[in-house]
Structures are given as structure tokens and as C-alpha cells.
Amino acid sequence: MRFPSFPTIVRTFYLFGNATTRRLPTTSLRQPTLRSIPTIPFLGSLFGTSTRNNMSYPVQKTDDEWQAVLSPEQFRVLRKQGTEAPYAGEYDKHMPSSGTYNCAGCDAPLYTAQQKFKSGCGWPAFFDTVPGAVVRHTDNSFGMERTEIVCSNCGGHLGHIFKGEGYPTPTDERHCVNSISLKFKNDGESKV
Ligand SMILES: [Zn+2]
Questions:
Q1: Domain assignment present for 18
Q2: Residue of 9, 110, 116, 140 with fewest CB within 10 Å of its CB?
Q3: Is residue 143 part of a domain?
Q4: What is d(CA 12, CA 58) in angstroms, rounded to the nearest whole number?
């Protein structure tokens, strides 16, 4: 493992994020009297992102409409910036010679099989995208600055980009993508 501490850090954030989300019932946020409590803005900045909410995307759906077409886990990751458990996703070790990985929300082609590489990080890794398919946002959650990646067609959360790690790829970028945000299609199977 090139970066032995990285999966541990991410797993910690994953567990922390889930635990904290469960402790924050959405009903409490709807009570005006709680809005002045300092912990609410703190948690908002912890889980919020700075730029993504200003974007508009061609595919627009309400949360109710997304929940009608996505599984609960897909909705949590794609629409609520969740993270799936490492080494558990359907496409982590999936290495086809051709085909595309489409958005699980809107079916837009995001990555080709040729752009995937083995990173060992526990999530599917890509070094490049289908041109224009992915938008980058600054993500300030968890008290650090990262680059979030979302589908440019529907705004669905895909994962994050990490740069300069030294992988022998043409871009030295790792698009760390949740399997559940993707749907693999063989060549000719994609609608778009
Ligand atoms: Zn999409």
C-alpha cells in the first residue's frame, strides 16, 4: 500500500459521518427555536459544500422524485453526498476491457473502462472522464478542503478527486468514485 494511512482516515470519516448523521434528526432542524444553537451552523459547515448548491443541472428532480427512482443507498450517496463503505462496492475490482460507467441517477456516460485503474484504495478509481461529463466543486466538509466530483447532467455526487499521488497514469489524478453512483454498460448498451 502506497499510502497506508489513507484508507484509515477515510474509514474514520465514513464512520464519523454516518454516526453524526444519525444523531441529527431532520425534524429538529425544522424547529425554529433550534436554529440559533451554535452547533447547528457548525454541523452545517461540517457537512455542507461551498459551491455545489449554486449550480443548476439539465436534469432537475426533487428529493421525492429522486427517492422514487433510486434505492435508499443510492439516494444517500448520490443526492446527500454520502460515501459507501470501502472495498464493498460492486465496481471496486471490476476491470472490463471495454464499456462505460454511467451515472446511476441519470444514465449519462461518465467514465470509460479504459480510464479505470487499480488504485488499491477500496473504491473504483479513474484517471480521466468522458469529456465534460464531470463537474468539480470545492468541498469544505470535515474541516478540510477537497475536490468533490458530481455528474454534470444531474448534479449527482460521485466522489472526490485526489492529485499528485504518483500513480502511473496520464493525469496523476485519481477520481475516487462510489460504485453505487455508477451503472456499468457494455459498448452499445448505453442509451446516450
Ligand atoms: Zn447524473
A1: no
A2: 9
A3: yes
A4: 35
Look at the block and give the residue holding cell 452499445: 188
How far apart are the CA of 156 and the centre of ligand 1, in A? 5
pTM of the complete model: 0.74
Maximum Cα–Cα distance for the chain, whole Å? 56
Examine the pLDDT at 48 and tell me if it is beyond 50: no
pLDDT, tens only, 75-90: 999 999 999 999 999 9
CATH code where residue 108 lies: 2.170.150.20
Told to judge if 176 belongs to the known catalytic residues of this protein, a careful annotator would answer yes
Q: How far does the centroid of ligand 1 lie from the alpha carbon of residue 39, in Å?
A: 33
- Centroid of ligand 1 to alpha carbon of 169 (angstroms): 25
Burial 51-60 (b: 16+ CB within 10 A, else e): ebeeeeeebe
Considering the candidates 103, 106, 151, 176, report the single residue annotated as catalytic. Answer: 176
As a whole number of angstroms, the distance between CA 67 and CA 98 comes to 31
CB distance 182 to 124 below 8 Å: yes
Phi, psi of 89 (to 5 degrees): -75, 155
Ligand 1 center from residue 38 Cα (angstroms): 35
Is residue 173 domain-resident?
Answer: yes
